[in-house]
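Need residues for this backbone.
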C-alpha cells in the first residue's frame, strides 16, 4: 500500500479507527530464531482482536498435527511455548482433549494401519488461522484487501495432491515463497477474469498443507474452465471431508 492512499484494514477494508501492523504469518509459529523480516499488513482494532483470540488454538493444533520429530521449530514449541500455554490455559487444554478417542490409521494406499488417538477439531476455528493468512497475503500482494464478502475456502490434508485438477493448477502457481526459513511457504495463482479469484497453497513446517481459494459469494463464475486453470469442479467436493476428527500425529 502506498502512502498516497488512505490506510485500510487488510481484513475488513475499513479506513476508520486506529491501525496496527498485523503479522501475516503469526509470530507464534516460532519458538525462537524468527526471520528478521516478517510480513505485516495494517489491521483495524476489531480484526486484530478477533483473529488474535484464535491464534493460540491455531498454533497448538498445527503443532499437534505436525508432531514431534517433524520440524525443529515444532520440537521446540512442543517443549516450550505450547507446553506452557497448555499448562496455563485450561480452556485451551479442554479444547485440545475434547472427545479424544481411538481412530483407525490408514496407510497412504488406504489400508488399515493400526489405531491411534484422535481429538475433535474445531474446524471452523482452526481454519480462521489459515483464512487470516490468505487474506493478509492477498492484501500484501494486491495492495488492497479481499472483499469481506469473498469467501476463503480451505482444504486441509493431503487428499488433494493426487487429483488431476490440483496438479494442473499447481503448474500455474507461482514458485514457493517463504519469509526466510522453511516454517512457512506459499504458492499462489491469481486470475485476470476476476481479481477476487485466487488459489493458494500454504505449507507450514514443510508438512502441513492447506489448499485455499478465494471466491466471491454469489459469483456467476464456474470453477471449471480452461482460463482459470481449475478444470475440475469436482475437486471441491472430493476435497471436502466429512470427518472433523483429526490425527494428532498427522498423516
Ligand atoms: Zn478490520
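Answer:
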Amino acid at each position: 500500500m502506498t502512502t498516497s492512499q488512505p490506510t485500510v484494514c487488510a481484513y475488513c477494508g475499513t479506513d476508520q479507527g486506529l491501525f496496527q501492523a498485523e503479522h501475516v504469518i503469526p509470530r507464534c509459529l516460532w519458538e525462537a530464531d524468527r526471520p528478521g523480516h516478517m510480513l505485516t499488513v495494517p489491521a483495524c482494532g476489531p480484526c486484530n482482536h478477533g483473529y488474535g483470540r484464535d491464534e493460540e488454538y491455531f498454533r497448538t493444533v498445527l503443532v499437534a498435527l505436525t508432531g514431534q520429530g517433524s520440524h525443529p521449530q515444532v520440537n521446540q514449541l512442543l517443549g516450550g511455548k505450547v507446553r506452557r500455554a497448555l499448562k496455563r490455559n485450561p480452556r485451551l487444554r479442554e479444547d485440545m482433549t475434547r472427545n479424544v478417542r481411538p481412530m483407525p490409521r490408514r496407510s497412504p494406499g488406504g489400508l488399515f494401519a493400526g489405531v491411534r488417538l484422535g481429538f475433535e477439531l474445531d474446524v471452523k476455528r482452526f481454519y480462521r488461522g489459515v483464512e487470516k493468512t490468505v487474506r493478509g497475503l492477498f492484501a500484501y500482494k494486491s495492495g488492497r484487501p479481499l472483499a469481506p464478502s469473498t469467501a476463503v475456502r480451505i482444504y486441509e490434508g493431503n487428499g488433494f495432491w493426487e487429483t488431476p485438477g490440483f496438479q494442473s493448477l499447481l503448474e500455474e502457481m507461482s514458485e514457493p515463497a517463504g519469509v526466510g526459513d522453511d516454517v512457512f511457504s506459499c504458492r499462489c495463482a491469481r486470475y485476470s477474469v476476476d481479481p477476487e479469484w485466487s488459489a493458494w497453497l500454504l505449507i507450514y513446517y514443510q508438512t502441513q498443507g492447506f489448499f485455499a481459494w478465494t471466491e466471491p459469494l454469489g459469483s456467476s463464475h464456474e470453477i471449471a474452465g480452461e482460463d482459470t486453470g481449475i478444470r475440475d469442479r469436482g475437486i471441491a467436493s472430493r476435497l471436502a471431508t466429512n470427518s472433523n476428527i483429526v490425527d494428532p500425529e498427522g498423516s
